[in-house]
Amino acid sequence: MKLLLVEDNRELSSWLTRLLKQSAFAVEQAFSGEEASHLLMTQCYDAILLDLTLPGMNGQTVLKNLRSKHNAVPVLIISAQNTLQHVVENLNLGADDYLAKPFDILELEARLRSLLRRASGTANPVITCGDLQYDSNTKRFSSCVGELNLTPREHAVLEALIRQSGKTVSKKKLADDLFTLDDSVSPKALEVYVLRLRKKLEQSSAQIITLRGLGYMLSHVTPAS
């Protein structure tokens, strides 16, 4: 899942980015409202963490511009402006949630997971495809053979596929959704991750199917009798 973190405090931004990456999120950073607006014109994100007190264009303006373009990406405000008036005002402008600084990283991650579940229309934190299960709270995959041991990028690819289980996901969308502008991921590398995942899912009823020219689909495959 790819996030945009809009925070002008570089020390705080680096700390949050490091911790979120450890939880298998791909994170891109913006340090001003203008930088965030530019990224939002060229990139797609699963959620935005938005500070309000930014240099130049403030967070409220970023939020207003985003919603005026009918962009429904979930937005979690992270701000030291925590009066009831500020909270209500920004929720009314289109923010999905509001977290006052200082906050605990565990609460931030829990609120993010809740936002992402609501955005996908899935209330249950456990997503399944056949015997494959993904617990979005613990970030763990398991199947009939137990917990899967995945590298961070294998995890990112499989999470994207199970969230769209039964639907075709193009290679370009996988790359755009999962990896940041700083990552160097070629289509060939993506094929390698899929190949490794297939080997790890050999005994599972969930299989990754290649749709030539279209992309990949995670599907429940019934064993032949």
UniProtKB/TrEMBL annotation:
Gene Ontology molecular functions: phosphorelay response regulator activity; transcription cis-regulatory region binding
Keywords from the UniProt entry: DNA-binding, Phosphoprotein, Transcription, Transcription regulation
Domain Response regulatory: 2-116
GO BP field: regulation of DNA-templated transcription
Protein's UniProt keywords contain DNA-binding: yes
Tree of life domain: Bacteria
Cited CDD domains: trans_reg_C (cd00383)
GO cellular component: cytosol; protein-DNA complex
Modified residues (4-aspartylphosphate): 51
Pfam family, one: Trans_reg_C
Coiled-coil ranges per UniProt: none
PROSITE patterns in the cross-refs: OMPR_PHOB (PS51755), RESPONSE_REGULATORY (PS50110)
Keyword Transcription found: yes
Occurrences of domain OmpR/PhoB-type (ranges): 124-220
Record feature DNA-binding region, as residue ranges: 124-220
Name the record gives this protein: Response regulator
Organism per entry: Rugamonas apoptosis
